[in-house]
């Protein structure tokens, strides 16, 4: 009999990203980062002028961060222990929106923090990648964890019978991002691993079988 499958995002679910990104921008690139709304394009501003970065410049600093600064990322409280606990009950894989060239680096990064898991890279909506992973593993039950509402919507549009948990463990972002649970695309919204782990264990054992309405 096939095992359940947990497919988890990495940044802001397992590892902090925005906080070390903010620190590096201020130290090395003359950019202030302040997430006051859900508009990421307005959060990055040149220190000298106060003007927001152009989209092309945002992509440049994001790529540079993942090329050279991933060592700054530290685990979100409880994330590694939770994933290792879940691995006792299910296969656990990581689906991260990074360029394919970062796949090995991300796997090593997680291993260095105590999590040995297969890593899949992706660009764009995650629904198609989720579908391919689920087809490969053919699990008895599949659970998807991500911090961004658009990926939950993509999951729902692509796979009808996947359970989804909207999780954002970064306090700088959590109050500002759209909520997939409120939109009807996630079964729950939980932002701490102390609460998420019991919910996920119940889900793997079939106790959260119906979608909770916001």
Features:
about 210 residues, alpha/beta, Rossmann fold, about 35% helix
Give the topology.
Layout: E1 5-8, H1 18-28, E2 31-33, E3 44-46, H2 55-68, H3 79-86, E4 91-96, H4 103-112, E5 118-121, H5 127-137, E6 142-146, H6 149-158, E7 163-166, H7 180-183, E8 188-189, H8 193-204
Parallel strand pairs: 1-4, 1-6, 4-5, 6-7, 7-8
Antiparallel strand pairs: 2-3
Write down the overall geometry.
globular
Mean pLDDT: 94
Could you spell the SSE succession in H and E letters? EHEEHHEHEHEHEHEH
CATH topology of the largest domain: Rossmann fold
Distance linking N and C termini? 34 Å
CATH H-level homologous superfamily name of the largest domain: HAD superfamily/HAD-like
Our Rg estimate from Cα atoms comes to 17 Å
Number of helix segments? 8
Strands, count = 8
CATH class of the largest domain: Alpha Beta
Number of domains: 2
Question: Quick summary of this structure?
Answer:
This protein has 214 residues and is an alpha/beta fold.
Task: Please explain how this structure is put together.
There is one protein chain. With 214 residues, this protein is an alpha/beta fold. The chain folds into two domains: 5-16 and 74-204, 3-Layer(aba) Sandwich (Rossmann fold), CATH 3.40.50; 18-72, no CATH class. It has helices spanning 18-28, 55-68, 79-86, 103-112, 127-137, 149-158, 180-183, 193-204; strands at residues 5-8, 31-33, 44-46, 91-96, 118-121, 142-146, 163-166, 188-189. The strands form two sheets. A six-stranded parallel sheet has the order 5-4-1-6-7-8, sandwiched between helices. Helix 3 (79-86) packs parallel to helix 8 (193-204) and helix 5 (127-137) packs across helix 6 (149-158). The chain is globular and about 60 Å long. The two termini are 34 Å apart. The model is unreliable at 209-214 (pLDDT under 50).
């Amino acid at each position: 009999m096939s095992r359940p499958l947990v497919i988890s995002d990495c940044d802001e679910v397992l590892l902090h990203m925005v906080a070390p990104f903010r620190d590096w921008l201020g130290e090395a690139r003359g950019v202030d980062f302040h997430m006051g709304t859900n508009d990421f394009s307005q959060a990055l501003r040149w220190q000298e002028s106060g003007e927001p970065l152009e989209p092309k410049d945002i992509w440049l600093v994001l790529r540079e961060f993942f090329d050279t600064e991933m060592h700054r990322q530290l685990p979100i409280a409880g994330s590694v222990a939770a994933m290792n606990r879940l691995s006792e009950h299910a296969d656990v894989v990581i689906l991260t929106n990074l360029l394919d060239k970062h796949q090995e680096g991300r796997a090593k990064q997680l291993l260095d923090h105590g999590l040995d898991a297969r890593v899949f890279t992706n660009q764009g909506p995650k629904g198609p990648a989720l579908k391919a992973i689920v087809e490969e593993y053919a699990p008895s039950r599949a659970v998807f964890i991500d911090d961004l509402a658009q990926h939950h919507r993509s999951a729902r549009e692509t796979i009808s019978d996947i359970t989804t948990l909207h999780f954002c463990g970064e306090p700088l972002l959590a109050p500002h991002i759209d909520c997939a649970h409120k939109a009807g695309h996630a079964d729950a919204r939980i932002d701490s691993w102390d609460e998420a782990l019991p919910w996920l264990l119940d889900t793997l054992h079939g106790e959260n079988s119906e979608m909770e309405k916001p």
